[in-house]
């Protein structure tokens, strides 16, 4: 684990003492796979083809901070087969500590990329989450974009806990190899964790509010805003009342922790430098 990412002592979580898995980059309390978008897509498609099962988690700054106060979410993400950085600030942070992540891998982009490959490979897909008219409309849009997309089924994400097994069973019975769960964080993670044994699908990807964006309910920030690391500000402008507290807390916490790590790194380097 790169020293710069050691946690401030008073905020350390038990798992942070473990070494990062090989090939992964540790950023504060998250471990990210050094995968480009292309590599991520190919790994997932390969997993479906070979029958290997796994979960992919896309983590942004807000989720990384949420994980710190939720051991359950932290454990889930740590145990995911793949974890990718869904935010430019995380990619910058990886560069700061000379452990560069190749690029941002956003959940919403993954949906399109995976659908395109699913068509080529004849892999069935399933969408679970969002309101029923939203998921229906998003599926229609994706089928129009990706001719021949084999949508094995879709369902909204509003159900009682006792209905979850039936939702999972419907996915399994559909024979879909790829499942997108779009119920927001940490709702979707709890569902996947609880129903993992019943889901059947080889690869499961949590995609948060992506179906709202595909269906046109929410707007996505323009590419230059994303590159500037300001996607959160764009979302905040759309829903200021609901998101103000969330982003204020998570952004300041992230900035504070990254600065703390940078200062600790510099002072360690100074102490280690040979005295004249
Ligand atoms: N959602 C869902 N089931 C629920 C609550 C939310 O499927 O019980 C969907 C919601 O319709 C939206 C997505 O999850 O498409 C993200 O929800 P929200 O905006 O609340 O999450 P956030 O983006 O704030 O994390």
Structural commentary:
With 276 residues, this protein is α/β, with parallel strands linked by helices. The protein has one domain. The chain is 53% helix and 13% strand. It has twelve helices and eight strands. The strands form two sheets. A six-stranded parallel β-sheet has the order 4-3-8-7-5-6, with helices on both faces. Strands 1-2 form a two-stranded antiparallel ribbon. It is globular. The model is unreliable at 1-20 (pLDDT under 50).
Report the order of strands and helices: EEHEHHEHHEHEHEHEHHHH
Oligomerization category of the chains in this entry: single chain
State which percent range the strand residues make up.
5-15%
Question: Bound compounds, please?
Answer: uridine-5'-diphosphate
Which whole number gives the mean pLDDT? 91
Q: Stretches where pLDDT falls below 50 for ≥5 residues? A: 1-20
What's the total number of strands? 8
The termini sit apart by: 30 Å
List the helices and strands and how they pair.
Blueprint: E1 24-27, E2 30-33, H1 37-50, E3 54-59, H2 61-69, H3 71-79, E4 82-85, H4 88-96, H5 107-121, E5 125-129, H6 132-145, E6 151-155, H7 164-174, E7 178-182, H8 187-199, E8 203-206, H9 210-214, H10 223-227, H11 231-238, H12 240-272
Parallel strand pairs: 3-4, 3-8, 5-6, 5-7, 7-8
Antiparallel strand pairs: 1-2
């Amino acid at each position: 684990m790169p020293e710069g990412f050691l946690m401030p002592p008073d905020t350390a979580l038990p798992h942070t003492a473990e070494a990062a898995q090989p090939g992964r980059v540790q950023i504060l309390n998250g471990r990210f796979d050094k995968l480009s978008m292309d590599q991520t897509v190919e790994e997932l498609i390969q997993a479906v083809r070979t029958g290997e099962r796994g979960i992919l988690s896309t983590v942004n700054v807000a989720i990384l901070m949420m994980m710190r106060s939720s051991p359950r979410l932290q454990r889930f993400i740590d145990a995911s087969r793949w974890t990718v950085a869904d935010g430019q600030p995380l990619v910058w942070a990886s560069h700061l500590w000379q452990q560069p992540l190749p690029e941002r891998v956003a959940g919403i982009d993954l949906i399109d990329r995976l659908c395109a490959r699913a068509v080529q490979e004849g892999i069935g897909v399933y969408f679970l989450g969002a309101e029923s008219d939203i998921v229906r409309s998003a599926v229609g849009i994706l089928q129009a974009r990706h001719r021949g997309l084999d949508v094995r089924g879709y369902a909204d994400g509003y159900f009682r806990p006792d209905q979850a097994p039936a939702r999972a069973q419907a996915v399994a019975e559909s024979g879909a190899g790829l499942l997108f769960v779009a119920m927001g964080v940490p709702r979707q993670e709890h569902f996947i964790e609880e129903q993992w044994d019943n889901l059947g699908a080889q690869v499961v990807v949590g995609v948060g509010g992506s179906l709202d964006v595909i269906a046109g309910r929410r707007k996505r920030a323009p590419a230059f805003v994303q590159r500037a690391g300001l996607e959160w500000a764009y979302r905040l402008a759309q829903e200021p009342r609901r998101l103000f507290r969330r982003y204020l807390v998570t952004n300041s916490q992230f900035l504070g922790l990254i600065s703390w790590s940078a200062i600790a790194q510099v002072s360690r380097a100074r102490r280690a430098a040979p005295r004249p």
